[in-house]
Structure formats: structure tokens, C-alpha cells
Design a protein that fits this description.
107 residues; 3 strands; 3 helices; three-stranded parallel beta sheet; globular; alpha/beta; 39% helix
Amino acid sequence: MPESTDVLRLEGRLTAPEVAELERRHRKRFDGAEAPASVSLADVESVDASALALLLEWQASARERGHEIRFEQPPDSLRVIARLTGVAPLLGWPDSESGDSAGPETS
């Protein structure tokens, strides 16, 4: 039986070790016709740049097959990484938001 393709919910940590496992676990889903319409990031607690790389890979795989994926409710830390690297628009996130509480840090 095919898995529901509507929403993939991610949770917990999205750092290099977890991202590698997610990529392996969902490779066939994103490379085939089973890509979800959206990926919920509401329950993601911490991220690093590998999380951003994974989302961009999933987006590229889906687009190659004529599908679009929405990445919903990303944590502020992921939005900051996406904004600083210039890829926020590729993920469907505005480049800057009036409600973005995670501004640049000063040292």
C-alpha cells in the first residue's frame, strides 16, 4: 500500500547524522511519484546547514518530476541559514520577514 503523500512531518534534530538517515529513509519517496505535497518542520528542535541541503535536494528531486513541495513552519534558525545563504526564496520562504525574531547576532 502506498504511503500517504500529503504531509511529511519531521521532528527533533536535523543535523548531519539525522539528515543522512532521513535522506536514506526517504530517497525512494522523493525520487519517485510518492513525494509529499508538504513537509512540516514545526517539531524540529535544532538544525545545521545539512538540514538546508536536504530540503534543497528534496525540492530539486520533486521539481525534476514536475512536483512542488511546501516546507512549512521552519524553525527560526533554519530560516536564518536559508536567508544568509540566499536560498530562502528557493524554499518558498520570503527572504526577510517582519516577524523573524532571529536576527543577526553581534559578538
